[in-house]
Design a protein that fits this description.
141 residues, 5 helices, mainly alpha
């Protein structure tokens, strides 16, 4: 057994002398330089991503500003349409109140032969004022 251990030890030493372990290892690499290279590549990638994000945000801001301007124009157009209708409604309410009808309780009902004739009159291109039509143009039969 003693001779077997000595032979085994001699084989290990001869292999170590023939093929040194340090000769097979990689040449030394500076770990700091590797980390710096990784950091530089990450910084380059981060700057590219930041530039892309800035360009996208600029386009989104421009789109939102355009949408806001369009909405403002739509609001102005809607208000322009509402004003004449509101004035006409106020005039009708005032006329009804002077005639003794309470507009807060009773609903305005546009029905009857005079109103139907007025609708035909408007469809044919007449003025859109019911009182004018009722008083001067329509003759009840």
């Amino acid at each position: 057994m003693k001779y077997v251990l000595i032979a085994l030890f001699a084989i290990v030493i001869s292999i170590e002398i023939a093929f040194p372990v340090r000769a097979l290892s990689m040449p030394p690499v500076d770990e700091v330089e590797m980390m710096m290279a990784k950091i530089q590549s990450n910084l380059r990638m981060a700057s590219q991503v930041t530039q892309m994000a800035q360009s996208k945000s600029a386009t989104l801001v421009a789109q939102k500003q355009q949408e806001k301007a369009e909405l403002k124009e739509a609001v102005v157009a809607a208000e322009a349409k509402v004003d004449p209708i509101q004035k006409k409604s106020e005039i009708l309410s005032a006329k009804m109140i002077t005639n003794g009808l309470d507009t807060s309780i009773e609903e305005i009902k546009m029905t009857g032969p005079a109103y139907d004739a007025y609708l035909n009159y408007v469809e044919e291109g007449g003025k859109e004022e019911f009182d004018y039509f009722r008083m001067y143009l329509w003759q009840q039969k």
